[in-house]
Amino acid sequence: MAQRILMKGNEAIAEAAIRAGCRHYFGYPITPQTEIAAYMAKKMPKIGGVFLQAESEVASINMVYGAAAAGMRVMTSSSSPGISLKAEGLSYIAGSDVPALVVNVQRGGPGLGGIQPSQSDYFQATKGGGHGDYRMIVLAPASVQEMASLTIKGFNLADKYRMTSMILADGTIGQMMEPISFEDAEIEVYEKPWALTGTNCERKHNVVNSLYLKPEALEVTNFERYERYKIVEENEPMWEEYMMDDAEICVVAFGIASRVAKNAIVAARQEGIKVGLIRPITLWPFPKEALRKAADKVKGFISVELSMGQMIEDVRLYTQCKRPVGLCNRCGGMIPSPDEVLASIRNAEKGVF
Amino acid sequence: MAVVFQKPKSLTDLPFHYCPGCPHGIIHRLVAEVMDELGIEGKAIGVAPVGCAVMAYDYFTCDMIEAAHGRAPAVATGIKRCRPENVVFTYQGDGDLASIGMAETVHAAARNENITVIFVNNAIYGMTGGQMAPTSLPGQVTQTSPYGRDVNHCGWPIRVCELLSSLEGPEYLARVAVNNVKNVNAAKKAIKKAFMNQIEGKGFSLIEVVSACPTNWGMTPQKALEWVESDMLPYYPIGVYKDRSAAKEDAK
């Protein structure tokens, strides 16, 4: 049997990153993700790595940019208001095609908001956040095990496609403890001939850059980047289906909301309601194929979210509004109870979405 | 025929895009000559700013990266912490370093980050067409201070070397100028020392180069160099503002 360790979600991310070969962490304190920095501060000096507390979120993401350009597996972590500050760097990292891992353990917003769990950075993570045309791979863990495994996956994907992987977690999963295993971790290694290493006077200089003053050149660069994104969209969507075989109602939820939804689905099934769950694990690329197929057989969808309803727009989009889509949500740091989700399912059964 | 003068190896063949009479060309050349003399072209990684020198990555033959506005010291920190064996430098202007990037500048200095910072102070935003800089002089007319910089309205110009010299962290802070041959030669010496310090692991060195912007100052190149002498240098005196190793030597 695989060896299992009891870990807190945030610490699982940090340990997984180290196991994935990350030896450089730059961050700035913010609740509720500070355990990641604390873990790195303790571990990195002992394994020849670097933990550096930056003067700001802005500086930390730019340190990540420099380290990524230097060819290293590098990460930063923050929570919602801090991610807004990092948005500038995220855009430059995307525009320069360097790989990085960024963790957002979300808290309620907007503004300073609160420090309790939230999923209200869905738009920011999946639709942009920084300026310009770009995408990030967005991974949404629903357990401490996934905090670890998606961190490792995130580093692999970042290097493979030369882009940012974002772990979009929430305060609940960041703070909860569960037993996890690292035994299935697969570390992929990619060549980085574009990295800044010094020319050693043996090659032409490498330039890491996002400036293209000629509009034709900028357009071509964006076209090429989106060709790469297309491959990501084809190959990398991940999702879980739960009790979907005979489902007539489909709940869509990610992260902590999906766990609440599962409880509600079990309860609804006991009442004879045929309901299932699609849980997107990658929020970008969104599992559109799964939603499209479900739209052909269920009578409607319920998007369960810790926000005012953000993912619901993608659920509508990728089901092409073929079926009604209801929203069951709490926000501001509140989490819907299984009973609230169950009530939405009962309504859906009656045709009320 | 003997070659008596040639382009440094560390500069590419690309013609500079700088305005006629702009001293950026001189300062690029000084940095490149120092890289040649120290034999570090193959080890160097340069960080270009946002500002007139935004395309510096095209001019140096070493590996280069383009930073966001003001973030060069943070980017350089990320690179240096990954590749301590490389020689990492930033090349920044006054808006970049002393306005939007002041936090990154101060904290890189406070950490005594082992990097070299070339700071070109020409008292104006050049690339965007001549706006007031954090180093524009009192009374200086710019596009955004059309009646002259009013210190009661927008404060006083910042003396970066003096400000940073209050920190324990930095190894070496010096202000030089490139308005005449004597000063250019002295500037090169200071730049060389700043790179040597990094190679010797001594830490953060910043060379503030008082420069000119004939185009946006609305002066001929000759007049601009005279204005450096008559107006800039009295406010920004040339000198060494911190030299920790020399201070230690003196203490012995």
Model description:
The complex is a heterodimer of chains A (353) and B (252). Chain A has helices spanning 9-19, 34-43, 57-69, 80-96, 122-127, 144-161, 171-175, 215-235, 255-270, 288-295, 311-318, 338-349; strands at residues 5-8, 24-27, 50-53, 74-78, 100-106, 137-139, 164-170, 177-180, 207-208, 239-242, 249-252, 275-280, 282-284, 300-305, 325-329. Chain A has 353 residues and is α/β, with parallel strands linked by helices. In chain A, helix 1 (9-19) crosses helix 2 (34-43) and helix 9 packs across helix 12 (338-349). Chain A is globular and about 70 Å long. The mean pLDDT of chain A is 97. In chain B, helix 7 links the parallel strand 5 (172-177) and strand 6 (205-210). Helix content of chain B is 38%, strand content 15%. In chain B, helix 3 packs across helix 4. Chain B contains ten helices and seven strands. With 252 residues, chain B is an alpha/beta fold. Chain B has one domain: Rossmann fold (3-Layer(aba) Sandwich). Chain B has helices at residues 24-38, 72-82, 94-100, 102-110, 151-154, 160-164, 181-199, 214-217, 221-235, 244-251; strands at 44-48, 63-66, 87-93, 116-121, 172-177, 205-210, 239-243. Strand 9 (207-208) of chain A pairs parallel with strand 2 of chain B, so a sheet runs across the interface.
